[in-house]
Amino acid sequence: MKNFRLLLFACCLLLITISCNANEQVTTSPPLPPTANDTNTPPPTSTNEMTTNTSDPIFGVSGDGPQTPITSQLVLSHPPRLEETAELTYTVTTAIQTDNTTIQILLPPGAYLLSGETTWQGTLTPEEAVTLQAIISFAQEGNWTIEAKALSPQENGDVWGDSAYIYLYTSDELSHEGFATDENFETTSGNTAPTPPAVDPQPTTP
Question: Among 2, 10, 133, 178, fewest CB within 10 Å belongs to which?
Answer without folding.
Answer: 2
